[in-house]
Amino acid sequence: xxxxxxxxxxxxxxxxxxxxxxxxxxxxxxxxxxxxxxxxxxxxxxxxxxxxxxxxxxxxxxxxxxxxxxxxxxxxxxxxxxxxxxxxxxxxxxxxxxxxxxxxxxxxxxxxxxxxxxxxxxxxxxxxxxxxxxxxxxxxxxxxxxxxxxxxxxxxxxxxxxxxxxxxxxxxxxxxxxxxxxxxxxxxxxxxxxxx
Length: 196
Known about the structure:
Radius of gyration: 18 Å
Number of helices: 8
Distance between the termini: 22 Å
Mean pLDDT: 80
Low-confidence stretches: 1-10, 106-120
Oligomer: single chain
Number of strands: 0
Largest sheet: none
Order of helices and strands: HHHHHHHH
């Protein structure tokens, strides 16, 4: 997973946070063009997040649609106590867990650290691909909650407090999930190295 940091100004896709609030206000007023703009703005990052949490490619579009339907129906409830992105990702997280529950997927607590790997030459491409495959295999062993914490931390750049808002849990729970996820990943990656 490539590490990306959230824009410090709170921008998503180059859109300033205050413009997102205005866009969501227009959605609350049931302006369809505003909803379409919000959908286009959030589609790539929601797809990434939902896939990272569920590891179920076949469910991503369904969950994304369910998430955006909730946004459409509940936009009027957004009270600006958090960023628009935090509010929308929290909805996506809950929709992801509901979809996994319908599938009977295990949902328990815990999460991982990924590194950007520079590829200095073509000889390293195969090694990087193998490392990526090992990491993806290790991440698949994490619970949805742990994967969500990892995605939100290392891909989206959210702090523990924001992750706690998105996931609807205390900050200490986020830290605990991160701790156990890292431990589980270290163990899994070590076992894979020994098997080689």
